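quick q for whoever's on today - can somebody do inverse folding on this one?? i tried earlier but teh output was garbage lol. C-alpha cells:
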C-alpha cells in the first residue's frame, strides 16, 4: 500500500536513559509514517514488550541494565518478533558485532541527526539492512579479521561451517560476496548487471537457505568464510 493507505512503521524504543529515549521518541513521532508503540528502559522489558506489541522494528540500545542489547536482540530475532536496529555510541564498539551476529538488521550511531534516524528506521523496515555501507564494511572487516582476537571474543556462537555454502547457486554466492563488501542492492545490481528486483530475490533466497535473519548477518558470514564478490 502507498500514500494515505500505507500502514505506519510500528516502532518500539528500548533505551535506558530517559532523556535520550524521550528525544528518540520525539523525533520518531514527528514522522507521519512512523508510530511509536512502546518504550522500554532495559533489555528484559524490550523483549517483553516486543512479544506483547509485535512492532515492526525495535530501536535497541546496546548497553542496558538487566539484559543487555545483544542478548535482547538475540531473543527478539530468534522469536521472529521484529527487526532490530541497534544504537551505539561508537561505530566500532565491540558489542555492535555481537548484536549483528545476533541478528540485528543494522546499527545507528547515537549522535546521528533526526533525518538519519528516520531514514535508518525506514531503510530497515524496507528490508535494506545495511544502514551506512562505508561504516558497515569497516565494522565487518574489523571484527572478522583474525588479527583482532579481543574483539572476536564478542562473537555469539561457534564459527560457521563452510559447508553451509553448498546450498547456494553460483549467482547467490556472488550476491553473498557483494553483501560481504557492504554493497546495497543498487550497487549489487550495477556490479552484476542485473535488475535490482532480481538482486532482492537472490538476497531473500540466500537468507532463507542460510537460515539468516538479515543481510547484515549474511555480510558477516561472507567475511568469515572468505566469500569474495566479483
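ok took a stab at it. sequence:
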Amino acid at each position: 500500500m502507498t500514500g494515505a493507505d500505507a500502514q505506519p512503521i510500528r516502532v518500539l524504543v528500548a533505551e535506558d536513559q530517559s532523556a535520550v529515549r524521550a528525544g528518540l521518541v520525539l523525533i520518531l513521532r514527528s514522522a507521519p509514517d512512523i508510530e511509536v508503540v512502546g518504550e522500554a528502559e532495559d533489555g528484559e522489558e524490550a523483549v517483553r514488550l516486543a512479544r506483547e506489541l509485535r512492532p515492526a522494528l525495535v530501536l535497541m540500545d546496546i548497553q542496558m541494565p538487566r539484559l543487555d542489547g545483544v542478548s535482547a536482540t538475540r531473543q527478539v530475532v530468534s522469536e521472529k518478533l521484529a527487526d532490530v536496529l541497534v544504537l551505539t555510541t561508537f561505530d566500532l564498539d565491540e558489542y555492535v558485532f555481537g548484536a549483528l551476529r545476533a541478528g540485528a538488521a543494522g546499527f545507528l550511531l547515537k549522535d546521528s541527526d533526526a533525518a538519519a534516524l528516520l531514514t535508518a528506521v525506514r531503510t530497515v523496515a524496507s528490508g535494506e539492512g545495511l544502514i551506512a555501507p562505508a561504516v558497515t564494511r569497516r565494522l565487518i572487516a574489523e571484527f572478522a579479521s583474525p588479527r583482532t582476537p579481543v574483539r572476536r571474543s564478542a562473537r555469539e556462537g561457534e564459527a560457521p561451517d563452510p559447508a553451509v555454502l553448498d546450498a547456494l547457486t553460483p549467482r547467490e554466492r556472488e550476491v553473498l560476496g557483494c553483501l560481504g563488501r557492504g554493497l546495497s542492492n543498487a550497487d549489487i545490481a550495477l556490479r552484476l548487471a542485473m535488475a535490482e528486483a532480481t538482486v532482492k530475490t537472490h538476497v531473500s533466497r540466500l537468507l532463507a537457505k542460510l537460515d539468516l535473519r538479515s543481510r547484515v548477518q549474511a555480510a558477516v558470514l561472507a567475511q568469515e568464510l572468505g566469500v569474495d564478490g566479483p
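fwiw The beta strands are 9-14, 34-40, 57-61, 83-88, 106-109. also DSSP finds eleven helices and five strands in the chain. so keep that in mind when u check it
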